[in-house]
Design goal:
Structural class: mainly alpha
Strand content: 5-15%
Low-confidence stretches: 445-459, 465-480
Number of helices: 14
Order of helices and strands: HHHHEEHHHHEEHHHHEEHH
Mean pLDDT: 86
Strand order of the largest sheet: 1-2
Number of domains: 1
Radius of gyration: 24 Å
Number of strands: 6
Shape: globular
Largest sheet: 2 strands, antiparallel
Length: 480
């Protein structure tokens, strides 16, 4: 069907599930740090606006965290079900790294999550703040180990191959492989930027609907400060990441640039737009800027960038896809920088919260961080092809060898279940966002007593307090 084989369906299945999953950890990372900042500011200033925002976003964090855990479990199982040959070949490296993530990060998050969500009126302020910080630290530690594992697959080192299997011989080199620092910084910063625009869009939506209060204004203000500062930093990190990729994965850079061949000693131009054709080995309708490719990628006006024709056809990534996924990421990144600068200009004029044109832009930019993150992930992973472990194992040799029928059934099942399950979760989370922060949330020091609100018994139940359904149930109970 459509010229696809079982290996293609296995790749599509993994891409589908990881695309769903990566959205939740990205928001979890950003929101966890945001909550730590909010509680720290409340402890320092004693301003209720920070406490109100903390309680509002902690509900959304709880729902997002739960969906991230569930979707993450599927990823781990796929290594054994669909990619068993990869696990057999490289499991001595990837297995321990993922285990370290569970031992050092997930246990830390899970241990303090209950205190963070339900301990506001049950433990001291300093202990609760410590719990929030530990959850935020746990999300970053989790990012550390996951990116270490994935980066090793991009730039493997610190290993030997014995009896056809990878054997780690230097764990320091395995963990801190050449691309790891850049990819860790790039991913963590992407999570912060994505969260900033998610928060900013939420505030813009309320302001456009006429709901103007200190909580909403503070949401927009903090989000735009974050965008103004972090989006340009992300561009700088991306430049360093690109230089590292050029050194260790030149074929990926050639595919990203749609650059097929060098002409004599001429510097490499930058192709802004075009349509790379893998069969004809050229980029059609190319719009080029002379010298700029060499300047951006080598920081020189004379050096050339490696071209796709310098690599065997079977070793070339799919330039048609990564050429455009990369440009989606960069284009959205530039729009984020412009949005941050625009917010600064409006802030100085005193119209940040009243400019409807800007608020509409902020609203539509809400998903931009997540879209850019996915585009960057596609660029990284598809650009690594045809290797699952770069230079060591091809993707075609890594699968479990299931039949086309088996992969078709499981893929369709995943698509249906994911859209139903996570669609419902995302819908509920967005309903909480639409409700907005309430003043004096959490001011209930006698939880659980007669006539008092009771602390939910399940983590996801934290999101139900103050929800529209909860309000309707209370009203119904009073009527009865």
């Amino acid at each position: 069907m459509f010229g696809l084989e079982a290996i293609d369906l296995a790749r599509i299945q993994f891409a589908f599930t990881i695309s769903f999953h990566i959205l939740f950890p990205a928001i979890t990372i950003g929101l966890a740090s945001y909550l730590a900042v909010l509680e720290g500011l409340w402890l320092k200033t004693h301003k209720d606006v920070y406490k109100d925002l903390y309680h509002f976003w902690s509900k959304i964090f709880a729902v997002n965290f739960g969906m991230g855990v569930v979707s993450g479990l599927v990823m781990a199982y796929q290594f054994g079900t669909n990619w068993s040959r990869f696990s057999d070949f490289a499991g001595a490296v990837t297995g321990p790294l993922l285990a370290y993530e569970v031992l050092t990060a997930f246990f830390l998050e899970a241990g303090f999550l209950g205190v963070m969500l339900f301990g506001w009126n049950r433990v001291g302020r300093n202990l609760h703040f410590f719990a929030t910080v530990m959850v935020a630290v746990g999300t970053l530690i989790s990012t550390f180990w996951i990116l270490s594992s994935n980066s090793w697959m991009q730039t493997p080192q610190g290993y030997e191959i014995i009896d056809g299997r990878i054997v780690p011989v230097d764990w320091f080199k395995v963990i801190f492989n050449p691309s790891f620092p850049y990819r860790l910084a790039h991913m963590a910063t992407a999570a912060f930027v994505a969260t900033a625009f998610f928060v900013g869009a939420s505030a813009a939506w309320h302001l456009l609907r006429g709901r103007d209060n200190p909580q909403i204004r503070k949401m927009l203000s903090m989000a735009m400060w974050m965008a103004l500062i972090v989006a340009p930093i992300q561009a700088v990190i991306g430049d360093f990441h690109g230089l590292n990729t050029l050194e260790h994965q030149p074929a990926k850079i050639a595919a990203i640039e749609g650059h097929w061949e060098n002409k004599g000693d001429e510097p490499t131009p930058l192709i802004l737009f075009g349509l790379p054709d893998m069969k004809e080995e050229r980029t059609k309708y190319a719009v080029e800027i002379p010298y700029l490719g060499s300047l951006i990628l080598t920081h020189s006006l004379t050096k050339q960038v490696p071209a796709l024709k310098e690599f065997k056809p079977e070793d070339r990534p799919n330039s048609t896809i990564v050429f455009w996924s990369f440009r989606v990421m960069v284009g959205l990144g530039l729009l984020m920088i412009v949005t941050g600068l625009w917010s600064l200009w409006l802030r100085k004029r005193g119209t940040l919260y009243t400019s409807r044109a800007f608020l509409y832009v902020a609203l539509w930019m809400g998903p931009s961080g997540l879209i850019a993150l996915l585009a960057g992930w596609f660029t990284t992973e598809i650009g690594r092809q045809p290797w699952v472990v770069y230079g060591l194992m091809r993707t075609a040799d890594a699968s479990s060898g299931h039949s086309f029928a088996q992969m078709s059934i499981t893929l369709v099942t995943f698509v249906v279940v994911y859209f139903v399950l996570f669609g419902a979760g995302l819908g509920y989370m967005m309903r909480l966002v639409r409700k907005g922060p309430l003043p004096h949330e959490g001011d209930n020091p006698k939880q659980g007593g007669p006539g008092q609100k009771r602390t939910p018994a399940r983590p996801l139940s934290a999101a139900q307090e103050g929800s529209e359904d909860g309000d309707n149930r209370d009203s119904l109970a009073k009527g009865i």
